[in-house]
Amino acid sequence: MSGTERRVAAVSGVKNSGKTTLLEKLIRALTDRGLQVAVIKHDGHHFEPDVPGTDSWRHRQAGAYGTAIYDGEKYLMVKTAQITPEALMDQFPEADLILLEGAKDSPWPKFEIVRGGNSERPVCDPATLLALVTDLPLSLPGVPTLGLEDIDGMVRLLLDRFGLSKEKEGDAP
Asked: Are the C-beta atoms of residues 30 and 158 closer than 8 Å to each other?
């Protein structure tokens, strides 16, 4: 799938706003509809890709710049290299939808979470928002506002935005 055909949306917000929890709910709702969903998470810190003590961790500690582990159904590859989100997206050509966790400064369409007690106002460019997802009395001109638990509303927005409802629902024309 080329860059102009990619179906990519982000779940953004400040740290500890509930992005992972919201993504879990969205993934379940989308896969329940038969969609194949991939997720790419940005980590602002240097994460440890291998569990200390495992064989692949030991290989990296010995100096390997890359490792891979696989079985008959899945694989995990770790490679020390510069990478872009777009290059990672290329690794999921069969995905119906790619969701990004984070990416608040990206041009990708996004749901921004603004949660009381954690954040006071949106931080993303309103022009990139699919919806503002909040438990606060907030709104932005031209941007839908959804509650934190309105997963069905978020799914409808995604399906409409990317034309997925006609492709994946059995009773669609």
From this structure: yes
